[in-house]
Amino acid sequence: MSDAKKKPESIKTPLLDELTTGQWPSFVSDLKNLSHTKPQVGQLLGQLEQSYEDRWNYWQGTVLNVDGYGGGVIARYSELSERFPDIAQFHTVRIIPPPGWVYSTKSLRQLCDIWEKHGAGIMQLHGMTGDILLLGTDNVTTFDAAEELMEAGWDLGGSGGALRTPACCVGDAYCESSCFDTMGITKYLTDRFISQLHRPEFPYKYKFKVSGCANDCACSIQRSDMPIIGTWKGPMQIDQKEVGKFIKEHGADYVVNNVITRCPTQAITLKGSKEIKVDNDNCVRCMHCINVMHKALRPGKQRGATILVGGKRTLKIGDTMSSMIVPFMPLETEEDWEKLGDLVEKIWEFWGENGMEHERVGEFIERVGLATFLEGIGLKPLPEMVIHPRTNPYIKFEELAPGRMGGEPHKRPSVVDKEIETFEKAE
Ligand code: SF4
What we know:
- With 427 residues, the protein is an alpha+beta fold.
- The protein has 15 helices and 14 strands.
- It has 4 domains: 3-54, no CATH class; 59-151, Alpha-Beta Plaits; 167-233 and 302-385, Sulfite Reductase Hemoprotein, domain 1, CATH 3.30.413; 237-298, Alpha-Beta Plaits, CATH 3.30.70.
- The chain has helices spanning 14-18, 27-34, 39-54, 105-118, 141-151, 182-192, 194-198, 220-223, 240-250, 252-260, 288-292, 334-354, 361-368, 370-377, 414-426, and strands at 59-63, 73-78, 91-95, 122-125, 132-137, 167-168, 208-211, 226-233, 237-238, 268-271, 275-278, 297-298, 302-309, 323-329.
- The chain has a 5-stranded antiparallel β-sheet with strand order 1-2-3-5-4, with helices on one face. Strands 6-7-8-13-14 form a 5-stranded mixed β-sheet. It has a two-stranded antiparallel sheet with strand order 9-12.
- A hairpin with a 3-residue loop joins β10 and β11.
- The structure holds iron/sulfur cluster.
- Residues 263-265, 267-268, 278, 283-290 line the site of iron/sulfur cluster.
- Iron/sulfur cluster binds next to α11.
């Protein structure tokens, strides 16, 4: 270590120290502990303190590629390298995690060992993309670390104008409300599109996030370009015995105040004092009643997913939060998964050819219009694509020919039937 280098204990961090005084564990305390064995972590805290003081970010970003990969390493160079030479290069390596973030203790130990050997020992589980982030390598140790990680069966994640590492909620593995195998589809998308993940070829980044139901535990609408969200067709499953028990235990007032009046489409009602009735035509599958009465109510048996495109907050044009392009897609078999993959390829082809540099797919849709986008990817416009159809006076529901949506005709909502009946009687 040169004379110019400062020992970790000689770096004062009064601003950061304030973060250790609250009641919650602080990353500052953790990093201070780590700095006893990894001196570069002390210097990292020193630079962060300086950033807090000056309100300025002293990192510069650039590209560093492992052989055969066009992304996966976020290269960081310090602008204060004279003062903090041990963090002159302080790169982050992105690693694809297991779907649903289900680790064995053995695999976690393996990651920790590799990172203690080659990096600064700092791991972030998980970054915004869903990747495992391993921090603190230089221009040499990055390659050593990547090689050892790959030999152990791990692979680099995405960065730049590429497919980013797909992420999902834990789905069927733990959750009875999940409407499809979220982890299976995430693995399928990762394997099928591994080339697009490792070699950037898009106008900008593209993210999948997969949630098994409308609770959207993967936060897919806010965090991805293509949210895939579980839903069901047909009637919700109701166990009236469990409904009766729930009402007895919590009281009818509780059910009225916390379930019936909270339904966004007023599709759920009490039937007598022990039963519940759901108007399935008007239920928008929001999951609220199921969350509250999860033993009594369950998603229907015909399950699949709603496919949306162009989500994410916040893009350059604001929060787009995505447009729904397929109301219901079964995702049970490998063939179903392949159909989803084929749709993805059509989107990439159209966006790849017509998108501008640094234009996310949501911004692209906003620029060219949803109608042009649908035509470009070969999908027909549907009434379900209209935001707030119930409050839009230009939308009217009609029965469609069978086969338009997975072989079943659309039904007119029963409220419309009732209104027509009342109108006809008045006539
Ligand atoms: Fe209403 Fe949502 Fe329950 Fe459907 S799932 S009945 S929309 S609360």
